[in-house]
User: Which sequence fits this backbone?
């Protein structure tokens, strides 16, 4: 699904942040990327989604066997890459449902599927709400406008469920959530695990991994993976803190 | 949701750029270029007007000669040679068409291209259309049906012939001949336009609509609209405008007068899409328009809604004079400037009566090198006890070469007044664009979505059919502003 080789990336006209990343994520796998603040976690998510402002200076990113780097953010999205934002953006005056329907139809068209009309869309929405066990109170409001931190994250997971991506990147989706909200979000992620879908969880804390069990954990420090292992690595990190990484922390 | 639900789909179906830029090949009769008393007499004679109206025009012409083009607006206007334009252009025929069957088929095809089927069968249910082509009104649909209810909806020329008492009573009563340079010019040479009278107590059951089209080269368009809502009546009126793509600037100087008597309500909506000129600022319409309404009786209400996307230069301030106690004025505006377009637009709310209230909601969008100015006056006169105004002006910038300006004038002469003014300026953020794109929307669709969200409070004031049209126009107007 995703194959990253020796990836170097920097901020446009700025310093290098990713200094040689190698990562292979297969369909059906859940990988967690952990690391201290400033280690490059969000940059990695941004580079994969095509966020403007980053320059890939070396290395390659293959997604389903093709080079991802020349694609625009919307082309990547329509190809099945979804980024759950650490800080979801407000779009005043745009109804959340309307936004989601426009997005879904854009993605569906790319997949060669017909647009959903209002009725079909509503039906799909209800089904996903039920699956994720979340309330529909967010849907009638403007996109992320006046949402609490927890509501924003819940909305990201809901969008992901509707858009059914092949590769989901979750950037600190657990940050700022209380324990109940964390359970709802984690429950949603678990329901969206599937043999066809790869999920990359980016997180600072181990606690999300108590609810979502990853296949692999990678520890990022100063732009490089310094450790990789199975889920037991998380517990070790929890015990010793990022200090165990030595100088980087 | 409403009309916005289909926008993105419709955007895809839309062609590029200005799609109304075609020219209709039709024989027309034009006055020779230039302006003098003889031309005024010629226009009046062509229209077989009574002496009083000719005298009124001549008086206007004399006043116009004494006046100067206004220069207080934040606009750069190349000098206009008023002697170079023709002041009358009409599709050639001996008399005005009596019914749709007599209208030149070429003209009907033009209106079909514009999306205005004139044939009543095909006409949008509930919308009666008066179409003005260059200087003359060519067809009015649903006339008979409206007539049965006592509603008069006809061309201005016809109103002069059939209802001279009403025209004579109200013409110039809201916008006097010498009001301003462009209004005086219009009063001298106005060609045609629409006339509406809604009788006492009647709620007009259909939207009334006029489509204006400038076709001929080197002509100005000077239409005149007069709407009278008698006591306790209601009418909703829509106006749409297009023009062919031409390299020279063309002048459009219209006058609209609204009179709402006691307990009457007039809702006036405009979607203005005159040719804006090309990306280098060549050509385009000069839209210098005077629109004003008066709430003459108690509890009357006048509501202006405008979506201004076209024209090289827009100079326009639809206003309300709130004479009657408890009368209400509203102004909802979206103005877009892209490329080298300039707009100086806003409103005037003149509070004369007690407990009058007004609301101003203005959304300005600047892209490219466009310059967009909101200019608005709120005046509370000494007798306007308990008057209230709420004003909100929001500006949205796209890119870093455009400008947004807000120039409010507030004059309060009664201590009991409550006047509120809020203004914001924001820029479409890269984060908003990236968020939309990350969900699969193309940059142009993302922009259109964000802009539509910004304008939502105004767009929802438009009648349904117009709201959808307006959203499409917003998208087309902003083409090329992201890349």
Assistant:
């Amino acid at each position: 699904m995703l194959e990253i080789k020796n990836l170097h990336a920097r901020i446009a006209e700025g310093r290098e942040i990713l200094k040689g990343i190698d990562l292979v994520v297969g369909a059906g796998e859940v990988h967690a990327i952990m690391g201290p603040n400033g280690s490059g976690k969000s940059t990695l998510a941004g580079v994969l989604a095509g966020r403007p402002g980053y320059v890939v200076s070396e290395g390659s990113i293959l997604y389903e066997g093709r080079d991802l780097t020349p694609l625009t953010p919307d082309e990547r999205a329509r190809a099945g890459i979804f980024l759950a934002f650490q800080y979801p953006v407000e779009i005043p005056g745009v109804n959340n449902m309307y936004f989601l329907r426009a997005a879904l139809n854009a993605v569906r068209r790319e997949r060669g599927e017909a647009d959903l009309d209002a009725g079909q869309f509503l039906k799909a929405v209800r089904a996903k709400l039920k699956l994720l066990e979340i309330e529909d109170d967010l849907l009638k409001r403007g996109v992320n406008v006046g949402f609490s931190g927890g509501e924003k994250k819940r909305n990201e997971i809901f969008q992901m469920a509707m858009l059914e991506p092949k590769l989901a990147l979750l950037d600190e989706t657990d940050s700022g959530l209380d324990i109940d909200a964390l359970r709802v979000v984690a429950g949603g992620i678990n329901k969206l695990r599937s043999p066809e879908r790869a999920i990359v969880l980016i997180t600072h804390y181990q606690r999300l991994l108590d609810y979502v069990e990853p296949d692999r954990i990678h520890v990022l420090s100063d732009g490089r993976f310094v450790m990789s292992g199975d889920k037991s690595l998380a517990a070790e990190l929890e015990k010793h803190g990022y200090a165990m990484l030595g100088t980087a922390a | 949701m409403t009309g916005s639900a289909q926008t993105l789909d419709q955007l895809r179906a839309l062609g590029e750029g200005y799609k109304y830029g075609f020219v209709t090949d039709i024989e027309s009769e034009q006055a020779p270029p230039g302006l003098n008393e003889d031309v005024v007499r010629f226009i009046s004679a062509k229209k077989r007007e009574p002496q009083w109206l000719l005298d009124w025009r001549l008086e206007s012409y004399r006043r116009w000669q004494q006046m100067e083009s206004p220069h207080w607006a934040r606009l750069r206007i190349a000098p206009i040679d008023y002697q170079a334009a023709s002041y009358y252009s009409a599709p050639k025929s001996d008399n005005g068409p009596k019914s749709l069957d007599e209208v030149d088929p070429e003209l009907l095809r033009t209106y079909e291209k514009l999306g205005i089927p004139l044939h009543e069968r095909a006409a949008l249910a509930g919308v009666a259309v008066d179409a003005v082509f260059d200087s003359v009104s060519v067809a009015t649909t649903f006339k008979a049906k409206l007539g049965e209810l006592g509603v008069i909806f006809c061309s201005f020329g016809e109103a002069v012939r059939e209802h001279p008492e009403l025209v004579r009573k109200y013409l110039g009563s809201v916008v006097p001949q010498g009001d301003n340079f462009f209004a005086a010019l219009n009063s001298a040479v106005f060609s045609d336009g629409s006339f509406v009278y809604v009788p006492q107590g009647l709620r007009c059951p259909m939207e009334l609509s006029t489509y204006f089209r400038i076709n001929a080269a080197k002509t100005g368009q000077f239409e005149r609209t007069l709407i009278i809502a008698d006591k306790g009546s209601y009418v909703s009126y829509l106006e749409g405008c297009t023009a062919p793509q031409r390299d020279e600037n063309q002048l459009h100087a219209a006058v609209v007068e609204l009179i709402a008597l006691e307990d009457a309500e007039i809702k006036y909506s405009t979607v203005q899409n005159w040719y804006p000129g090309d990306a280098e600022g060549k050509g385009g319409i000069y839209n210098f328009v005077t629109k004003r309404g008066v709430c003459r009786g108690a509890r009357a209400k006048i509501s202006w809604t405008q979506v201004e996307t076209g024209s090289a230069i827009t100079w326009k301030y639809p206003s309300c004079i709130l004479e009657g106690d408890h009368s209400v004025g509203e102004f909802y505006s979206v103005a877009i400037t892209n490329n080298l377009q300039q707009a100086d637009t806003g409103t005037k709310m003149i509070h004369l009566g007690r407990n009058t209230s007004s609301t101003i909601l203005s959304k300005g969008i600047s892209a490219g090198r466009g310059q967009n100015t909101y200019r608005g006056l709120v005046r509370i006169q000494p007798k306007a006890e308990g008057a209230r105004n709420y004003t909100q002006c929001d500006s949205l910038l796209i890119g870093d070469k455009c400008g947004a300006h807000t120039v409010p004038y507030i004059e309060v002469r009664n201590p009991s007044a409550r006047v509120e003014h809020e203004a914001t300026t924001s820029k479409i953020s890269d984060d908003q664009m990236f968020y939309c794109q990350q969900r699969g929307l193309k940059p142009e669709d993302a922009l259109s979505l964000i802009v539509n969200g910004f304008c939502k409070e105004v767009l929802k004031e438009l009648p349904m059919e117009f709201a959808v049209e307006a959203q499409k126009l917003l998208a087309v107007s902003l083409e090329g502003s992201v890349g």
The radius of gyration of chain A is 18 Å. Helices of chain A lie at 41-49, 73-78, 96-110, 118-132, 149-163, 179-191, 208-211, 232-240.
